[in-house]
Design the sequence.
């Protein structure tokens, strides 16, 4: 039988939107950013700076200070002094006022934050404007509300703050991850030393300006920039009481080894390889949108991305046809354009990782599909990519790629798909698409994942806990569960 020709519609000639670029005229970036220690921007003792670039144009945005051991030491000292002398002595109500102030200032400057996030990270402006920044503000609002209610949140347990929290964040949701970490730490009465990722430090430094403007006592929040080595100085510092880390499983393991045998508490939010499961009774059009959102949202730079797709055999053909058609209509390109669905890959290094995995997938014998789409000449780009004819043991089905690459398999029965979905080292998230509530409940109790979405995907809320099992880490962020790791209890 002749092989069916590619069924995707070629929209490339007539599916063009007029450009709708977001203005950057109102953005004032400094040429050089120093470290934020003890309420002031100070030059690094290291004397060193590194460049942060726009991954969509490869142009330099600014020089950013690289903190060494002495700089981290100064930040921890400032955080300890602020904790002992001021922050731990303030009432919850007073702490809450400061946190509310930060939330309101983020809202006021939301447009600036969104543009800087997209310039520095490569994500489409629509996402930073509608998801990252509003959610970051929402986390500060949410935790501000808990600051004076800790006794009610944890009744009869006498909650007390820990001291100094060391926090290390990745590059995929820079501002949101900073909010996930700083807001509960402050609400619980701790002070903070935060290190943002080296490729996306600018929104955390903008947050430092807001923290100054909000009048937080000096040293309550310190922001030190640098590479992994700067992070390791925080991890190994004797006067840090808790490490909150979001990043790769590999670095998470290094950190857990480093703090083993110490009194440091830890929360680890690590990698993922989520299964998105489509049953034959699913609302197919809605599910296709969920698949697209699950893996192509934020270029697949999402720990909980739906990077494995399991389709029940009887609806495989229709799901694949609709999925390929939808992929063809995705707009890849300028992150500052409001039409863009898929922006730039965050760094040259990550681009190489993704390209290597696409080669691995082909070598493993899987069939690749990429829609026709024009790619900008400069910058780092990967078209939306899917693989069919994938085996469960293939590396593209087992390892985190952290890019817009989807590995697809089919299944016949519930027990088969459960076995396949749970067969990875990770356990962060999963998605289930079906018309039957009973099937949803059956699946959610048996999937080894910290988060299971039903008939939706990639939805976040400050009141909802987030975190994983197995190699996806331990501890939760968000909700009351996210407050608890910043507290110790008498009972
Ligand atoms: P990464 O582990 O390379 O880096 C994360 C942070 O750790 C960066 O700030 C980095 O400078 C720092 N770091 C690197 N080496 C260190 C060391 N030895 N000691 C201390 N700090 C060190 O991760 P990444 O590439 O920036 O981010 C992508 C990863 O993050 C993916 O695996 C993704 O799944 C994960 N992630 C998880 C969640 C979650 O909530 N589970 C959320 C977002 C991202």
Sequence:
């Amino acid at each position: 039988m002749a092989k069916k020709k590619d069924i995707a519609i070629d929209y490339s000639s007539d599916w063009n939107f007029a450009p709708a670029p977001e203005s950057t005229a109102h953005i004032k970036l400094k040429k050089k950013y120093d470290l934020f220690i003890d309420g002031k921007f100070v030059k690094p003792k290291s004397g060193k700076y590194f460049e942060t670039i726009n991954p969509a144009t490869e142009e330099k945005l600014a020089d950013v200070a690289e903190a060494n051991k002495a700089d981290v030491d100064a930040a921890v000292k400032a955080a300890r002094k602020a904790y002992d002398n001021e922050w731990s002595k303030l009432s919850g109500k007073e702490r809450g006022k400061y946190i509310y102030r930060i939330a309101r200032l983020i809202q006021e400057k939301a447009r600036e934050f969104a543009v800087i996030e997209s310039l520095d990270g490569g994500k489409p402006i629509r996402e930073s404007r509608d998801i990252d920044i509003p959610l970051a503000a929402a986390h500060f609002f949410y935790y501000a509300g808990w600051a004076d209610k800790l006794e009610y949140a944890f009744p009869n347990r006498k909650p007390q703050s820990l001291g100094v929290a060391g926090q290390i964040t990745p590059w995929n949701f820079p501002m949101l991850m900073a909010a996930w970490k700083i807001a509960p730490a402050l609400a619980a009465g701790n002070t903070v030393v935060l290190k943002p990722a080296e490729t996306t430090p600018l929104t955390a430094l903008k947050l430092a300006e807001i923290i100054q403007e909000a009048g937080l006592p000096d040293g309550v929040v310190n922001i030190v920039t640098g590479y992994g080595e700067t992070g390791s100085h925080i991890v190994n510092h004797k006067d840090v009481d808790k490490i909150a880390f979001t990043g790769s499983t590999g670095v998470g393991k290094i950190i857990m080894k480093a703090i083993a045998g110490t009194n440091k508490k830890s929360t680890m939010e690590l990698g993922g390889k989520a299964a998105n499961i489509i049953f034959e009774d699913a609302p197919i059009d809605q599910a296709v949108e969920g698949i697209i959102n699950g893996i192509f949202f934020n270029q697949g730079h999402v720990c909980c991305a739906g990077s494995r797709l399991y389709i029940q055999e009887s609806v495989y053909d229709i799901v694949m046809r609709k999925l390929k058609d939808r992929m063809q209509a995705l707009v890849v390109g300028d992150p500052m354009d409001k039409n863009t669905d898929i922006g730039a890959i965050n760094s040259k290094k990550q681009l190489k990782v993704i390209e290597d995995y696409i080669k691995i997938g082909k070598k493993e014998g899987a069939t690749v599909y990429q829609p026709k789409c024009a790619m900008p000449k400069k910058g780092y780009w990967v078209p939306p990519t899917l693989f069919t004819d994938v085996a469960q043991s293939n590396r593209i089905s087992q390892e985190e790629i952290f890019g817009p690459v989807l590995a697809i398999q089919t299944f016949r029965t519930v027990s088969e798909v459960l076995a396949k979905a749970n067969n990875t080292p990770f356990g962060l998230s999963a998605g289930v698409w079906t018309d039957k509530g009973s099937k949803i409940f059956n699946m959610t109790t048996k999937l080894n994942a910290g988060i299971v979405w039903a008939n939706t995907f990639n939805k976040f809320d400050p009141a909802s806990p987030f975190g994983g099992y197995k190699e996806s880490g331990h501890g939760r962020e968000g909700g009351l569960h996210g407050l608890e790791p910043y507290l110790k209890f008498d009972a």
User: Anything to note?
Assistant: The pocket of nicotinamide-adenine-dinucleotide is lined by residues 168-172, 195, 197-198, 227-228, 231-232, 235, 246-248, 251, 254-255, 269-272, 303, 400, 402, 428, 468, 472-473 (CB under 6 Å). Residues 1-11 have pLDDT under 50 and may be disordered. The chain is about 40% helix and 20% strand. The chain has two domains: 32-270+472-489, 275-454.
